[in-house]
Amino acid sequence: MSVTYDKIFENGNKLPLVEEFYTIQGEGYHTGKAAYFIRVGGCDIGCSWCDTKFSWSPDFHKLQSIDEIISNALKTKTNAFVVTGGEPTTYDLSILCEKLIKHNIASHIETSGVYKLTGKWDWICLSPKKHNPPKEEIYNKANELKVIINNESDFEWAEESAKKVNNDCKLYLQPEWSKYEDIIPMVVEYIKNNPKWNISLQAHKFMHIP
Question: How is residue 209 annotated by DSSP?
Fold first, then answer.
């Protein structure tokens, strides 16, 4: 973790917040369910196809107290809280998780797993990147493995990752959005031949919602 991130962190009581919103989960196992999302700033993974590059620098985003973030979530009817990024494991999220538990809100995280996982989570979605692989320890903790398919070689990476997760982990392949029309036939055919996998379609983009 860089010195800049340490400074921003402020003892775990604040996070560099890119955005927060109440919406319908559009990806993976919980697709179609209502959830409150926060996107934290800061990511050095550098995926070329990333659709949220505006979140990469934590310095461009305001610091928001965790109490205020949770207060905003409580104004909705949500029973699930999703932390995404950026790369959320850049920060120690223990305090956030503790406060969510007190309010009986399920805590979900979406991470590439490159840094140590902190906090107690109800659902961990691991989306590993082959150019910057996860820490080995997170594979066994993942409830869901979601691999982005950008080209044919990504299927091999998906299979390598699937060998490392626990037996109860849900397996998903997700076509990279900007190449969806080209990628989707390949993903469909692969899953038909390898039915342990499910497809994740970024339904929120089809619905034109956040």
Answer: -
